[in-house]
Sequence to fold (585 residues):
Amino acid sequence: MSASPPRLAFRQPSVIPGFGITLGLTLTWLGLIVLLPLSALFIKTSELTFERFIAIVTAPRTLHALQVSFGLSLAAALVNVVFGSIVVWVLVRYEFPLKKVADAIIDIPFALPTAVAGIALTALYAENGWIGSLLAPLGIQVSFTPLGILVALVFIGLPFVVRTVQPVLADLDKELEDAAASLGASRLQTLTRVVLPSVWPALLTGFALAFARAVGEYGSVIFIAGNLPGVSEIAPLLIVIRLEEFRYADATAIATVMLLASFVLLLIINRLQRWAEERGGRNA
Amino acid sequence: MSALDHVAASEGMPSALAQSRAYTGHGGRPVRTEPRWVRITLTAIALAFLFLFIGLPLVTVFYEAFRRGWAAYVAALVEPDALASIRLTLIVAAISVTANLLFGLVAAWSIAKFEFPGKSLLITLIDLPFSVSPVVAGLVYVLLFGAQGLFAAELAAWDIKIIFALPGIVLATIFVTFPFVARELIPLMQEQGTSEEEAAISLGASGLSTFFRVTLPNVKWALLYGVLLCNARAMGEFGAVSVVSGHVRGLTNTMPLHIEILYNEYQFVASFAVASLLALLALVTLIAKTILEHRLAEGDR
Fold:
């Protein structure tokens, strides 16, 4: 029997003090900094008529900016899944010189400010840059084209894939691979039928995280993109442009679409993470 | 690893030898690795990719910054507008990191030390700013406090300026760095449970002294880790700050915004010089992070 009087069983009883005040402060601060500002976006959007909202969102320039943002984010996330998987595999399974350095620099895109990454990539891929000057004779232009956007999005997305898959692969029980091999599976069969199903949820989670990050990315993209409306203009930039033109309704409507997209992505990512954890639990 | 293992591995033979190695339990590595040429190719691809996409951009920052020599580099940094941007960045980071540090501790205490319904929703909401585009984060504050904003009349009546001023920059920065400290603390404190705190309380310690003498020492490295990441992001935030700052040179320009202005004015050396400071910060953050991760791993044991 509990010594405290029976109260609303909102939380389980505990001798530790401070629940009310810490939860109260947490909710207040969360409300003021995150929830109130985000709801301002929906309040402002609700001031638009539905027809106006649809007109803004389906305007050719808006549609194209959304298409560029979502399409190239998808492509960048796919590139990161392919090369990120190779990087993870090599880091977890092989020994080679400079392995520690290779492992450490993967977090650079997390830590390097996006504006710094943006100007560095632009300089690198400009026609007189180290990589740009090699590509120019081949007729490939990266800076100031959609390809440049892709490069920037691959840069910022890589750590999401690597850091999500790496711990899962490292924890993978190698005896399963032994068993498969001893039962006569070829190496390729072992990889596709034993290893891949185990890391698949983590791989998908990493893909979704990289995609979600890329969709909203601004700083690293705007320098290299060239920002040609209808060609290489991303949705976050269009929001900024509309804001600078004092077209608040337009900025708000586009931002609402972006925010709803991030909610959906967040939901998917949460599901994926739970799935990945269950998978991991079964393998452990 | 013996030479025989290598042969078994590189020939990829499903031989009795390889199988017997698999059954021995250890040293079974050869059966589950790829032929040598595959391993070399994959390693080369991975290293080339990392070099191309991460190594080169990092080197470029410093190369471009020192292109005109040390004197031009220093001149770009001691220029008044650059100094003003550095100062503003330090102020903004100091305020927002402190705010998120306090919030992180308070939130982690309520979430990790108590059981209540709706907890996972609360954690999701705390993580929410990570999935919001920085530009949208800046925009929502403009919609609240800007000239057309929901609170425009009130702010005008009290003569308070938030957008295009320091408070707006700080608020936007707090928003984008909101989850950093909390998300480092919550899982660790949940894992550590409540038994030590319960023991301290039942021995007569007050709640506060339990927190400072029992809980805080247990999470100090994770706390430092969160603060470090929070600080790096606070100093480097671009999109959200760009929307609310107004870009007043020498007044509301943080370092990333100053970098943008210089770059757009074709002052590349100056732009990369300021950028090199932030790149250095990123490197120091990563090194400290690596050391801390080591500590955290040891703490687990």
